[in-house]
Amino acid sequence: MCQRRRFGPDVVWTLLDTWLPTLFIAGVMLLIFVESVGRTVARASIIWYVEVLAVIFTWAVFLAGAAGIRSGRAIAVDAFYGMLGPRAQRAVLAFGNVVVVMTGLAWAWWLMQLTLDQGGLETVMLGIPFAVRTTGIILAFALIALYGVRALLRPAPPPPHSAAVEHHEE
């Protein structure tokens, strides 16, 4: 029998940092396709598509980066990490998570201040406010900080070392 997933925080995070960037990238691809076909077939160009692509792509990249932090697959240096013992691995993970939290908070704060200072700026063609682009980045860095705190409070066991076994045939 199929078990239904309950609506909870993990579903919200997955929707926010995985599905939303996926939909954004699909939208970017569709917009580029429409622009290319329109320019080639109809000899007409969508003059504002670059501004929309910049906003959508910015949101997608930074939210997908937050998904990488949430899953624990963002950055790994396996060669160094694999040489450490279990206690040292936990210490390295904790230090990395502290750096992630501090970086996420610092960037979110700086971008909030920048957005407040540049509140009146808009894009040239469509008049998209500067805040629309930076809000996605602020949200992503806030999520990165949140995921770092979550990893500090509920540390996962260190990932297994995944050294490839070499086969030599003679």
What labels would you give this structure?
mainly alpha; disordered C terminus; 170 residues; elongated
Could you explain how this protein is built, in words?
This protein is mainly alpha-helical and 170 residues long. 69% of the residues lie in helices and 0% in strands. The chain has one domain (9-153). The protein is built from 5 helices and no strands. α1 (9-41) runs antiparallel to α2.
Roughly how many Å apart are the termini?
A: 51 Å
Question: How many whole angstroms does the radius of gyration measure?
Answer: 21 Å
Number of domains: 1
- Give start-end ranges of low-pLDDT stretches: 162-168
Oligomeric grouping of the chains: single chain
> Helical stretch count?
5
Q: Could you describe the largest sheet, including whether it forms a barrel?
A: none
Proportion of residues in β-strands:
under 5%
Helix percent band: 55-70%
Task: Count the E strands.
Answer: 0
Structural class: mainly alpha
Strand and helix order: HHHHH
Global mean pLDDT: 76
Shape: elongated
